[in-house]
Amino acid sequence: MDADIFDPAHYAACRLPVLEAQTLPAWCYTDPAFFAAEKERVFARAWQFVGRIDEVPQGGWLAVETVGGPVLLLRGKDGTLGAFANSCRHRGARLAEGSGSCLRLVCPYHAWSYRLDGSLGGAPGMDETAGFDTADWGLTPLRFEAWAGFVFVCYDAATAPLATYFGDMTERLASHRFEDFVCVRRRDYRVRANWKLIAENAMETYHTGTVHSASLGQQAARELETTGHWDAIQVLDEASIGVLPGQQAPFPPVPGLSEEARAGTYFTTLHPNTQFACVQDCMWWLNFHPLGPDRTLLRVGQCFPRTTTQQPGFDAHAAPYFHRWDTGIDEDNTICEAQQAGLASSLRRPGRFSSRERAVHRLNNWLLDQVLGDAGAQRPL
User: What are the contacts of 187-190 at 24+ separation with CB within 8 A?
Assistant: First the structure.
């Protein structure tokens, strides 16, 4: 391998039109230096999805891992939301995990305590420390924005506001009224694969007839044009694909969906590392949290309209949706791990794209835009 893996010449074949192009070099999925560049040039600058507002107890916390470090979403009893570094201002200990309700968060190391607005409530043993004022030592606040109940954080003040960053996404998905949804189930998976493999797999139906031959079956999707740092394909089916083929979806569609949204399910990539799968009667999200070049924490949340969750017998009726999601995700994780094993081979050479992998090609080139910077004459954040 050439010592300079960031030489744009290595990626010229991937920059060609999709049916002439080659896939990314294997080192993009295996090399620690490339992974370090992704953390610095992509994740440190982009808006990252961290959870739903309804997942944060009113008068409590939700702890989330991000590439930039652990994050706390705090929500006061009045509903006010804040995002902070999950790190005590004294000696840096992680303050909390999971989620829960409390009046204050207490550091497990030296018992410094923090109110739900992030301010320091108490610091035992600090009375003799010169010039120490509790007002100066609240939790480190983070830049965050919420859209339709989804919360995002960003570590770079120069990055455009959320609505600008995601372009026409907010308008395109508005008719689903996700602000009226609730997250009813959340699961974590540790996948022995690079985060991009999971993201790529989620944006093409080329694999469904083989990987999901006994479950989801073959699917077909149309490409959608988007603006901003997101992408989408749509599986055309007026019936919900939130359940397995042949099953009748128990829940009604969201009222007022746009004509386009009624036609099928959006599979979206919110760059860099989140997918929203937007079905007519539900949605699920996948967040690909990189742990290393070949390891990913995959976080999945499953959501329904609040009115749906209040129907009698919701748990029983939701079971087919959970079964469909669990089945598909397990099958996808298995094939991504097999792909990672193949990419680790010294014999691996770039391949070619099919006409059903246009979104993968776009995703790869979006990533190169960010990682190569000015050297590639592309569209940085």
Answer: 187/299, 187/300, 187/326, 188/297, 188/298, 188/299, 188/300, 189/297, 189/298, 189/299, 189/300, 189/329, 189/333, 190/291, 190/295, 190/296, 190/297, 190/298
